Amino acid sequence: MKTQRTRSQEKIFHLLKTLDSSISAQDLYIELRKRKQNIGLATVYRSLDALKLQGVVQVRTLSTGESLYSLVQQDQHHLTCVNCGQSVLIDECPVHDLEDRLEKSHHFKVYYHTLEFFGLCDRCQGMTGPLEG
Fold it and tell me: Going edge to edge, which strands form the sheet with 114-119?
């Protein structure tokens, strides 16, 4: 069953289609204003939530607590530095088989998954000195 989208949801969906990276709700709101789309910030958040529930938008929460939104295209995995916030996209995914098994065993439709490792990048490791283990 296809869900009917509101005009605000459609505008946000189409804007996300034009972007090549994830974006925060605040920045999405600013971008919509630049494009003369008069949508309030609360409506942006509600629309993003509705699109997420439809399985077309994914959200990634950074170590800073900021949420970034993008269209569900492919699973993305990252190495994220907890000091400087640098995030590096990694191509490997060790959980695709697990995802398939979970869908079958729990009768659960997975829209997407995220995998993120948190630590210190090379530069930040050099600034803090040798790591103690």
Answer: 87-90, 76-81, 114-119
